[in-house]
Design a protein that fits this description.
Layout (H helix, E strand, L loop, with lengths): L2 E5 L2 E4 L4 E8 L7 E7 L6 E6 L5 E3 L7 E6 L4 E6 L8 E8 L2 H5 L10 E6 L1
Parallel strand pairs: 2-10
Antiparallel strand pairs: 1-3, 3-8, 4-5, 4-9, 5-6, 7-8, 9-10
Length: 122
């Protein structure tokens, strides 16, 4: 059974940084695509960044150059380094994983963490 546990969220001022972590268990993370999604109040969940098994990454346009997704397969952990944070980055951030790229890309995977809140004040 796949289990994902996020941590590292918090409240920061605009321009600040946070590093989110997602500890994975119940499977071999190196065989899974992994990603970060976020959902702000009253808005739909959106894809932030995806990383494949080899470390190739893709990002939402609005976070390119500010966010970095990475993974440590030996530790079964996914990371999201967020720099130059903006108030519009405020959301609940979720970790997700799947063996199928398209299920993850579309957000239709069944494997989600419980989320960690990120709040950015101006």
């Amino acid at each position: 059974q796949v289990q994902l546990v996020e941590s590292g969220g918090g409240s920061v001022q605009a321009g600040g940084s946070l590093r989110l972590s997602c500890a994975a268990s119940g499977y071999t993370s190196s065989t899974y695509w992994m990603g970060w999604f976020r959902q702000a109040p009253g808005k739909e969940r959106e894809r932030v960044a995806i990383i494949d098994r080899a470390g190739t990454t893709t990002y939402k346009d609005s976070v390119k150059g500010r966010f970095t997704i990475s993974r440590d397969n030996a530790k079964n952990t996914l990371y999201l380094q967020m720099n130059s944070l903006k108030p519009e980055d405020t959301a609940m951030y979720y970790c997700a994983a799947d063996t199928d790229f398209y299920r993850l890309w579309l957000g239709s995977t069944l494997n989600w963490g419980q989320g960690t809140q990120v709040t950015v004040s101006s």
